[in-house]
Amino acid sequence: MDTRQPLVGGNWKMNTTEDEALELARAVIDACDADLAQQCDVCLFPPFTWLSQVGHAASDTPVLIGAQDVSDKASGAYTGQISAQMLLDTGCTMTLIGHSERRHGLGEPDSLLNSKVHQAIDQGLQVMLCVGEQLAQREAGRSEEVVANQVLAGLDGVLKEDLSRMSVAYEPVWAIGTGRTASPEDAQTMHQRIRAELERQYDAPSASGIRIVYGGSVKPSNADEIFAQPDVDGGLIGGASLDAGGFIEIVRAAASSAAS
Ligand code: PEP
């Protein structure tokens, strides 16, 4: 029996004005009562510019705030970058690293992502490491190998005692923002493979303690069947997180998957 608390993240990407961000955050915060928060962790990932405002709205509530990226440097002459300490100052407790729109879209290599992971952990942030294969890799039958390598490279040098700060988001690139979703069985197979890789690299208790969430066109209508898979511990939600009502339905689906 696993005891992993589900985690659902809302990745707003480069969307929302300041007013829209606050309205969306407040609607999620209002709907996320103590009962729901006890059954599922919820983290919002607004654009950097609204982190302080959204962080303020979420302070003293169970809703967590995360950043969509973090610098691998602590401070200094790095124009345009945002450090882990700056994120912590806004009320952030988590950051995404390696989202496909950065890994593939901006060409961030595994070595940089691993360096970001170390920086974030060292400064006290939690990390959601995003991994996922591209369509051509899936069609070539290389999905599991590609994803396992991304996980190992991202975690290179991370100590077992720091794994409690980590979660993994499996997000097949071909499913992000496309309306296409991995089948629940395919998601389960990949999550199981990731967990097996973590067990090989660390040990069984560490592997069974880490949350592996699924991302890629999750919506209220498909959340139940995806979250019902034993190794799927919640989701990272893009497009559907911009609607508070739909996002909360997804959070409820994750909460009830843990209860059943
Ligand atoms: C994401 O941005 O991580 C994501 C999964 O997006 P979408 O839900 O829109 O596919």
Characterization of the model:
With 260 residues, this protein is an alpha/beta fold. It has helices at 18-31, 34-39, 51-58, 84-90, 100-103, 110-123, 135-139, 143-154, 184-201, 204-209, 220-227, 244-259, and strands spanning 7-11, 41-45, 64-67, 94-97, 126-131, 166-170, 211-215, 234-237. The chain has one domain: Alpha-Beta Barrel (TIM Barrel). Strands 1-2-3-4-5-6-7-8 form an eight-stranded parallel beta barrel, surrounded by six helices. α1 runs parallel beside α3. The termini are close together. The model has no long low-confidence stretch (mean pLDDT 96). Bound molecules: phosphoenolpyruvate (PEP).
Average pLDDT level:
96
Bound molecules: phosphoenolpyruvate
Distance between the termini: 12 Å
Provide the helix percentage.
Answer: 40-55%
Offer a few descriptive terms.
12 helices; eight-stranded parallel β-barrel; 260 residues; alpha/beta; TIM Barrel; 15% strand; binds phosphoenolpyruvate
Topology of this structure?
Elements (H helix, E strand, L loop, with lengths): L6 E5 L6 H14 L2 H6 L1 E5 L5 H8 L5 E4 L16 H7 L3 E4 L2 H4 L6 H14 L2 E6 L3 H5 L3 H12 L11 E5 L13 H18 L2 H6 L1 E5 L4 H8 L6 E4 L6 H16 L1
Parallel strand pairs: 1-2, 1-8, 2-3, 3-4, 4-5, 5-6, 6-7, 7-8
Helix pairs in contact: 1-3, 1-12, 8-9, 11-12
Bound molecules: phosphoenolpyruvate.
The site of phosphoenolpyruvate (PEP) has 13 residues, from strand 8.
